[in-house]
Amino acid sequence: MRSLILIATFVAVSLPSLAKKVSGGFIKDGKTTETTFFIQVGLLMGEPNFERIQYKVKYLDENGKKKTLRPHDADEFWFDLDGMDVRMVSVENTLGLGNIFTSSPKIFLKIEIDGPLRLFRYYYKQTNTSMGAGGMGTTYTYTVDNLVFQKRGGPLMKPRSLMWKKDMLEYFGDCPALSERIESKDLKRRDIDEIVFYYNRNCGKK
User: Fold this and answer.
1) β-pairing verdict for 137-151 and 117-131
2) pLDDT digits (tens, 9 = 90+) for 63-109
3) 26: CB partners within 8 A, 6+ apart
């Protein structure tokens, strides 16, 4: 007798959210435009839907009409959400980030540290299924993030999880002192901010 497997689906990213009006602005070809954005915010955590605004965001134009801002429409945009300052920068999507429905030549990435070496955060959805007693399964989708580097406006670099040290040593081959600190484990994965600051202080002007 064949047993039936029942699958219960729980989608974490589908928890209730609302579009919140926030003040901000964007830059296009050196021109700054102040506007009001409509940012999807989760009711549970109160955080912006960063995964969504990497590809498009709604805003009001000078006539009060709702428009869509995409990565090819602006150099960057920013907004303030209850004291959280967010800046999203349009970059060439050299890593092919996104999926078949969202991938585009450019993408907005949340900037964490600016300078000759820039540190971005990229958000994406991940799905897992756990099997319980009696063949009952739970499928849940959640948003995770990865750190992405960019030197002087060049190609993006996202170090591989299992090859992190190797990728970082190769990427920072132009900064021997920093590579040595990574090789000796003086700077580790948890020291990302210090790695970026060190590069910008000591090697970023080359």
Assistant:
1) antiparallel
2) 999 999 999 999 999 999 999 999 999 999 999 998 877 778 999 99
3) 32, 33, 35, 59, 69, 73, 74, 75, 76, 77, 78
